[in-house]
Write the structure tokens for this entry.
Amino acid sequence: MKKILLLSFLYLSVARLFAQQDPQYSLYQFNQMAINPAYAGARECLAVIMDLRKQWVSFPGAPTTIDLTVHSPVLNNKVGLGLNILSDQIGAKSVTGVYGNFAYIAKLNSRARLSFGLRAGYLNYNFNFSKVNYKDDNETTITDYNKSNSGNIDLDAGLFLKTNSFFTGLSVTHLNSATMYHANYTLTPTGSASPIGYTNTYKLNSHLFFVIGKSFAVNENFLITPSLMLKSISVRQTVDLNLNFFIKKRVWLGVYARQGYGLGFLAQFYATDKLRIGYSYDTGLGTKKALGSSHEIMLGFDFKKIQNKTVTPRFL
């Protein structure tokens, strides 16, 4: 019976604690293709971005995310093509995926571009029960569960609008709500002669992302850029509020507040006109402080020099 209760608690805990199945990003402003396929080609160059996030570092089995995105405009900036590679580890659960991105870029006027994006890929799910630590050393897991490794096709879509000083995007991930894992098994409780059947299913929930930001030029060397990101999963919504400053056309500094969690700060530095290095730190407040702090590092490389504009933030 202990084994049954433990397995049930484990699955319920994962479902509640990690209802947001998509990775959390604090540097999303500088790598929007991670959450929106319509962003492909928006940097108007061949852009390569690597992102590493260690979340809740004091919490055993906390999320670790590695994300690689590559994208570029083609056909006279009318189409954006891209590639996403993702690895997300949470305790005994790991998810890896490879996606191809396509965006159609419509020129609204001399300053505004509206993109329509689609992303399709294969997502692999694995839950390794041999990594589960049991409080009671006499407890063991089910042999078949050590083989829980499966995958499915995953589909995303989005819109992205940008001008010289404004951006907004709307995207939905897991449009097809793919079932990643389904298993039937039986257990015989201690003291019982009859086995009991159980079913476990891991299904992707659609996530909605809405982002919006606007730059205000104080002078040629100083921009103020407030932005907002809304995330919605089922009936749960969270909001990130950011206030960023672009200094000397070289350094981004910012602070942000995450609803229901805490506060953080970020920085991005242009080591050269092509190479940028980003870092963010956040920590929970109140009861969330026990989870510990989170760190995120980003490296971005643009293979074509971006032409500076009067107030254009370089992450657009």
